[in-house]
Structures are given as C-alpha cells and as structure tokens.
Amino acid sequence: xxxxxxFTGATADDGPSAPAVNPPHxxxxxxxxxxxxxxxxxxxPFKVVDDGSQGxxxxxxxxxxxxxxxxxxxxxxxxxxxxxxxxxxxxxxxAPKVFSSEVVKPVPLTFLTLIDAPDHARLRQIVxxxxxxxxxxxxxxxxxxxxxxxxxxxxxxxxxxxxxxYAIPLSMSTISGLLDVPADDFEKMKFWSDETFSYFGRLAxxxxxxxxxxxxxxxxxxxxxxxxxxLHAQGNESVxxxxxxxxxxxxxxEKEAKELCAFVFIAGHDTxxxxxxxxxxxxxxxxxxxxxxxSAPSDAELFVEELARFRGTVQxxxxxxxxxxxxxxxxxxxxxxxxxxxxxxxxxxxxFPRPEVFDLDRxxxxxxxxxxxxxxxxxxxxxxxxxxxxxxxxxxxxxxxRFDAAHEIExxxxxxxxxxxPERLVVKVEGRHA
Length: 434
Hints:
Layout: H1 58-67, E1 70-73, E2 80-83, H2 86-93, E3 99-100, H3 119-128, H4 133-137, H5 140-157, E4 159-161, H6 162-179, H7 186-205, H8 213-234, H9 239-248, H10 254-285, H11 288-295, H12 300-310, E5 317-321, E6 325-327, E7 330-332, E8 337-340, H13 342-345, H14 380-397, E9 398-403, E10 410-411, E11 422-424, E12 426-431
Parallel strand pairs: 2-8
Antiparallel strand pairs: 1-2, 3-5, 4-12, 5-8, 6-7, 9-12, 10-11
Helix pairs in contact: 5-6, 5-14, 6-10, 7-8, 7-10, 8-9, 8-10, 9-10, 10-14, 11-14, 12-14
C-alpha cells in the first residue's frame, strides 16, 4: 500500500510548482515504438501490459536508460510514454500542473493517486496526522511483536514463502491495527484488497481486470462502511474512526469515506509486502549483510533506504500531460499518457554510481523509492518502520538465508500496472543460536 507508493499525497499545499522541462521548440518526429527498437535478442521489447517478461524489469531499465530514456509503446487505447532517467522523472514529479494525476475524468475512485489539487490536499490532510513518524512510532512494539512471532515460525519450519508467511501477515496486521479494521477474516480481507486494486487498475490504467473485481470492490466498500459506522459509534480514535467522523460531520461524502478508507488499507499493505519480501531477497543474494546487521543494528536504517532505491516496489506512476512538453529531446503532445519510472530512475548511473550494486554505504539521498513532490509517499514512515524492524530481526535471529532451489521466484503481474516484486519467494533459513 503504497507506495506511488499508493499512499500518495501532498506534503504541503498543492501550490505552484516549477516546470518539469523546457517548453518545446520546433516540432520533431515521433520516436519509434518500443517493439520497433533494436532490443537485445534475449530481452523482449518493453510493453504497456506485462506478459510475464517484466516481473524483474531491471535489465529493461538499463537498456532504456542508455538507449530510449523516453520510450513510446503502443496500446489498444493510445500511445504510452515511459520516462526513465532520474532528472526527468524527478522534474515531472515536481510539476503536477503539467503532469497531471487525473488520468481519468471524472475521477472514478477516491484514491489519492488519481487526484490533483485542490481535492488532493483536502483529502490527504484527513489522514496525514496518522502517518507522521511520531504517530507511527506508537505502533513499533506491536510491529516488533508480530514480526518476531512470524520470523520464529519461519525459523521453526526451516523456511517457507516469505511473502505468504511473513510479509503479508505483518503488513496486513499493521494496517488493520492502524485503521482498527478487524483482520480476523484474513483471506477475505486480502481477496477484497487485491480485487479492489485490480478494479482501480482497470478504471485508471486500462488494465485487464479479473471479471469479478467491480463486485468485490463494492463488497469491500460496504464492509468498510459498516466498520466506520461502528467506529463512529464508539468514538474510536483510529484512522478509520477519524475518517468516519469526517464523514458524519459532512466533510466527506459516504463515497469518499468508503473509498478513502479502502485506499489507505490497500496502500498500507500492498507496497510494503513487496518491500519486506525484497528484504529477504537481498539478504539471500548477499549473505554478508546478516553479519553487518548483526554487528551494527543501527545500519538497519541504511538498509531500508538502499532497499527502497535498489528494489523499491513502485515501478510506474501514471500521469497525463496538460500541455505539449519536451522531455530529453522528445516532444510529448498535450494529453499524452505517461508512465514515470521511479525504479528505473533509482538505477540511473548518473545519479547513483554502480546502481546495480546493493551498497549500504552509498549516499541514497534523493532516491525516489517513496515518491517525490506533492505526491510523495504518505505512508513512508510506516513502510520504513516495518522494514527496519525486519532488517534488525534478520541480523539478530538468522544465521543464513538462501533461496530454495526447488522454487523459482514468482513475480507480481499486477492489473494495476504499478508494482513489481516477488509474489512468491521461497527461502531456507537457519536460526542463529544464542
């Protein structure tokens, strides 16, 4: 949930911002489509809809950064432009008036990733206080307790699927507690969350959908409405209770309240789930990291920032241009559908030397793993805390983490066309004796 991080919104008011790029000059011919470019023989052309070849997209990103920093791809609906270089992505994220988030009008769901000013700031302020580092810190003991129980169970079994057995239950229990939404029916909540995210992707990103996502989303909204009725009657102080009060006080419509609550729930676990799974992945790839985290637990904070740069969750941020604009020598027309690529930007060697190396000692300042600008990641403190706790526990409790050779990594193939990372990641672990 997250990232953007789907937890996106302004950190300040959505006022004037600097232009993303220089205004265009003379009209230029459009570049070739992705499928017309000379990709390496063993690398399929980058596509708008992932057919399975983009689950681990970093080889694509390296080629795009070097050869097509503004990549044009075709879709049945329209051309889609992928922007990958760090400076271009960062500038576009800072120019919401040129690169608008309202890719669909009217806005179909009260998801902050789809909304521009002034509604964007209004809605974000409703939940922003709950996601300050101080407010999130109140949940640290609960997160640590849950994480330790889940890791101990993994150690007792000698390993398992870290997505199913660790990342999902930790992230879902955390966001359920923050919203005070019961997580007793775990499978139903996860199903509704995934289906609603699919529905969002179909409405906003022309994604395929599941065939059942619309009905499931409305079932989820109805469940959350009943939950907010209960929280309001109790005078509950959770984020869910706060949204309920704003609804009952007339500051939110019922539709806004239900959908905003769903947005927070989905964003609170979906993106963090992938980030937590990637923590296990990089430790399995670089076993020496366990020694580093064990001997210097405070380096867990460095681990979080480098992980967000190296294998962040959010891959594509959707925008639409409100005017003709030039990026890296390519003129994008007004109304162009754009995908900003923060994960590719985080692997731009012009900003981060040797970007393919996971380096705890690198300067990660300015990374885009938690977004940037007015749509920076609202839930970043929560994601950082859950990942920091996980890194500390891995260093303290585990002697080794290694991939289970009998199981290949299976990647998310999201209908939302936003997130990328492990959907199934099976490891073998060995506990460290005291």
